[in-house]
From TrEMBL:
<keyword id="KW-0472">Membrane</keyword>
<protein>
    <submittedName>
        <fullName>Single Cache domain 2-containing protein</fullName>
    </submittedName>
</protein>
<keyword id="KW-0812">Transmembrane</keyword>
<dbReference type="InterPro" id="IPR033480">
    <property type="entry name" value="sCache_2"/>
</dbReference>
<feature type="domain" description="Single Cache">
    <location>
        <begin position="82"/>
        <end position="155"/>
    </location>
</feature>
<dbReference type="InterPro" id="IPR006311">
    <property type="entry name" value="TAT_signal"/>
</dbReference>
<dbReference type="GO" id="GO:0005886">
    <property type="term" value="C:plasma membrane"/>
</dbReference>
<dbReference type="Pfam" id="PF17200">
    <property type="entry name" value="sCache_2"/>
</dbReference>
<keyword id="KW-1003">Cell membrane</keyword>
<keyword id="KW-1133">Transmembrane helix</keyword>
């Protein structure tokens, strides 16, 4: 009889262990999806920024548009997000690092040698409603090399861009 009581205690322990393992598995699944949720938030924020900046540029022209727009239209430093504007030849018209403005960066390549600025220009002209491109880039916030996803939209002879570096899982 004592043995039967031991079995039910063993069964209780097995049930508790199974419940604990299920809880740990669920926690692992939730944590694994966290970078995807962050990427989705970044993706949405980038589109909102580019669309707001494009509206300001269409309404006021450049550079007057810089005086207009809600907070977060041109930069969200806390999220490492910022707008940059190119002309169709690859000259930077607007960049957070003002020393870069006026430079032609059409030939700049990513870590894989991909001419990503040219790709952004070609893709945005072909898809004026907005388009995503990807390339290897160093995160402004972490310094880590990762895949940068940039959303670009053609506005007249300008290309309005913003992007985020995806968290590497």
């Amino acid at each position: 009889m004592a043995r039967t009581g031991g079995s039910s205690t063993g069964a209780g322990r097995r049930d508790a262990l199974a419940a604990l393992l299920a809880l740990l598995a669920l926690a692992g699944l939730l944590l694994a999806r966290l970078p995807l949720a962050c990427a989705a938030d970044d993706r949405q924020a980038v589109v909102e920024m580019v669309e707001a900046a494009a509206r300001a540029l269409e309404t006021y022209g450049f550079p007057r548009a810089l005086e207009h727009g809600a907070d977060g239209t041109w930069a969200r430093p806390d999220a490492g997000l910022y707008i940059f504007v190119l002309d169709r030849l690859g000259t930077l018209l607007l960049h957070p690092d003002r020393r870069m403005e006026g430079r032609n960066i059409a030939g700049v390549r990513d870590a894989d040698g991909k001419p990503f600025i040219r790709d952004i220009i070609v893709a945005s002209v072909a898809h004026p409603g907005g388009v995503w491109t990807s390339y290897l880039w160093r995160s402004a916030t972490s310094g880590q090399l990762g895949t940068k996803h940039t959303y670009a939209k053609a506005v007249g002879d300008m290309i309005v861009c913003a992007g985020y570096v995806a968290a590497e899982a």
